[in-house]
């Protein structure tokens, strides 16, 4: 019986010694599997993220191109509007320059406060009370600024 008891003790000792190794070996195998699974999942997520990033980059590129095209169109429209405004201003200035020269001959004296861009031909200047006046036919003018532009305004005759 002692022989059987000795064998049982030896078998038990071997089993106790081997069980932790087997358990650890299985634990390492499970961890390795999990690690590989995590890497595979991580790679899948990474590939998915790359696809999303590529898609977003393409959308941003398209949006940037559309924005640039819209800005260029707006700039062209603004330049067109500016050119039209400059043309209208030039026409107004031409009309204003022609009007004071023709008006005195046609209708006599201009109304006080009429603004002219230029003086009619043949005006004589005179200083009265330290103020420079221009006498043109039946009208008297004083120089003034309208914004950054020098203009001439009809006034009552100086005293």
Structural class of the secondary elements?
Answer: alpha+beta
The main sheet orders its strands as: 1-5-4-3-2
Strand fraction = 15-25%
Q: Describe the largest sheet.
A: 5 strands, antiparallel
Helix content: 55-70%
Q: Order of SSEs, N→C?
A: HEEEEE
Runs with pLDDT <50, length 5+? 38-43, 101-106
Counting DSSP H or I runs of 4 or more residues, the number of helices is 1
Separation, N- and C-terminal Cα atoms: 153 Å
Count the E strands: 5
Average pLDDT, all residues: 76
Cα radius of gyration in angstroms = 49 Å
Number of domains: 2
Principal-axes shape call: rod-shaped
Could you give the topology of this structure?
Layout: H1 2-107, E1 115-116, E2 124-128, E3 131-136, E4 139-146, E5 149-155
Antiparallel strand pairs: 1-5, 2-3, 3-4, 4-5
Describe the fold and architecture.
The protein has 159 residues and is of the alpha+beta class. The protein folds into 2 domains: 88 residues; 52 residues, no CATH class. It is 67% helix and 18% strand. It is built from 1 helix and 5 strands; from the N terminus they run αβββββ. Strands 1-5-4-3-2 form a 5-stranded antiparallel beta sheet. A hairpin with a 2-residue loop joins strand 4 and strand 5. The chain is rod-shaped and about 155 Å long. About 8% of the residues have low confidence.
Give short descriptive properties of this protein.
about 160 residues, rod-shaped
């Amino acid at each position: 019986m002692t022989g059987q008891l000795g064998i049982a003790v030896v078998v038990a000792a071997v089993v106790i010694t081997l069980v932790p190794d087997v358990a650890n070996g299985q634990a390492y195998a499970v961890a390795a599997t999990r690690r590989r699974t995590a890497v595979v999942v991580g790679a899948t997520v990474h590939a998915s993220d790359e696809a999303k990033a590529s898609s977003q980059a393409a959308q941003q590129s398209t949006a940037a191109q559309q924005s640039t095209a819209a800005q260029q169109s707006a700039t062209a429209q603004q330049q067109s509007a500016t050119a039209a405004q400059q043309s209208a201003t030039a026409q107004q200035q031409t009309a204003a320059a022609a009007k004071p020269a023709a008006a005195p001959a046609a209708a006599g004296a201009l109304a006080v406060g009429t603004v002219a861009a230029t003086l009619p031909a043949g005006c004589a200047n005179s200083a009265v009370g330290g103020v420079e006046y221009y006498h043109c036919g039946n009208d008297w003018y004083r120089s003034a600024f309208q914004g950054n532009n020098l203009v001439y305004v009809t006034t009552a005759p100086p005293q």
